[in-house]
Amino acid sequence: MNPQSAGEHHEFGLFPDQERVIRHTLPKEIETKIIEGVDIAAFKKKILEMEGVLTREHVIIQDRNFALAKQKKRGEPTQHAVRIPSTRAHESEQFRDALRYLGLPILAYDRDQDGGYYRVARPSLIPRRSVRLRDVNNGEELIFTVKENRKKNQPSGIDSRVEIEVPLTDVQSILDLLEQIGYEERDGVLNKKDRTSYSFGGCSVEINSAPHLGIPDWIEIEGPSSDAIKRIAAQLGIPETAFCSMSLGDQVEYFKMKK
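The structure assignment produced for this chain is given below.
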């Protein structure tokens, strides 16, 4: 296999054949939102009547979102050490996938007295991703997420994109890495919500509340496929015309315009 030519850039910072393997195997988030037109109290009652299972109630989620603010000039590749957040094999694999999806080829694995870490290359150009640090219930869980950028105006109202989630014990090494490779925390909407979750028909159904943003409660349905989401929504009395794929910021702007 020939290395990349000097000016050639691939989406994952890897060789083309490796890209195809990673793109094929990365997990995807497939979900829709219903942001209006549903009586939430009646909906909660209905999902329980249909033997949906309440899995978590009134979980407080706070997200810090990051975006690529600047690219280094060509010809200025750098290297960084990033601490491995877990000793569990499957979580370490998720972390490797997240680094690669950020466009950071892994050069080596090393250990010191504090545990393992990867040495990664920061190429001259890296892809733009949606990056999130999630705090659940004030530190009960910390999750590092790298996503494919949201596609605007999905005609189906169902959003399908790569999503890699990695549990963390500490966020500082991730914050340091994001700063080093040019990601900055987004200002604007405080992405904090109260979430109640149900399992129903192989899908996750979540009811979210963020009254401080001045928007009504909304529903999210996440499943293994678009067809599964449509099937569950139909059983719960939600028409496909109610589906949307807005970000939380877009929801805030939408309801501002409606006032």
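Interim note for the steering committee: The radius of gyration is 20 Å. Confidence is low (pLDDT under 50) at residues 1-24.
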